[in-house]
Amino acid sequence: MDIYMPMSTTRRHNKIINEFVSMRENLNKAENIDIFTSDCALAHWGSKRKSNDICKLVDFDLIEDREYFKKRTINQLEYVQPDYMLFKNNISLVNEFETITAGFPDLVIEIWSDSNSEAEKKFKFDLYSSGSTCEHWYITQDSNNVECFMGENRLNGQNLKNILTTDNGIKFDLRRIAI
Fold first, then answer.
1. Distance between alpha carbon 134 and the CA centroid of its chain, in Å?
2. What domains can be seen in the chain, in order of their start residue?
């Protein structure tokens, strides 16, 4: 029997994610926001195992029976595990076990380290870019720079030494952990 052990994250990676997560209570009280970390996967159409398959986030405008999707389809899809996802304005559905969600997150954050391959980075960038209302940020863990995108469009970069602000005005203060 093979035992699979996921690669552990670094202390810096955990600090960054923990800062985002620590703001969950304030965000949830202020607005109707759902926040997920890497313990909840993000389902997508397509297969990254097939080189000619186009992978896209689930667009609920194209789903006629959302209840059937939630009960049956979502568990059959492939998925990724972003470090952090936030849903505010965009629709999300979570499976009955609350382990997989689907939709266009309002914000996805990935913390890159040396263990992330270029292929993985490209795959996730292309996947998150498939949702025109999906803002996605990339932070290299040994840097303060934040690369920001909305769908395929590059937004102004940000820096952990400043208060980070999403395109729709949600603020995150990670200045205390800036390097």
1. 9
2. 11-177 (3.90.1570.10)
CB 146 within 8 A of CB 42: no
pLDDT of residue 128: 97
| Token digits of residue 168 | 């729709």
User: What is the band of 76 on the pLDDT scale with cuts at 50, 70, 90?
Assistant: very high
- Which pLDDT belongs to residue 127? 96
The answer to whether the beta carbons of residues 174 and 16 sit under 8 Å apart is yes
- Single-letter amino acid code for the residue at 155: L
pTM for this entry: 0.90
User: In angstroms, rounded to a whole number, what is the distance separating the alpha carbons of residues 176 and 162?
Assistant: 10
What is the mean pLDDT of the segment spanning 19-31? 74
Amino acid at 126: D
Listed in sequence order, the DSSP H helices in 23-132 are 24-30, 66-68, 118-129
Distances, alpha carbon 52 to alpha carbons 44, 47, 49, 145, in Å: 15, 9, 9, 33
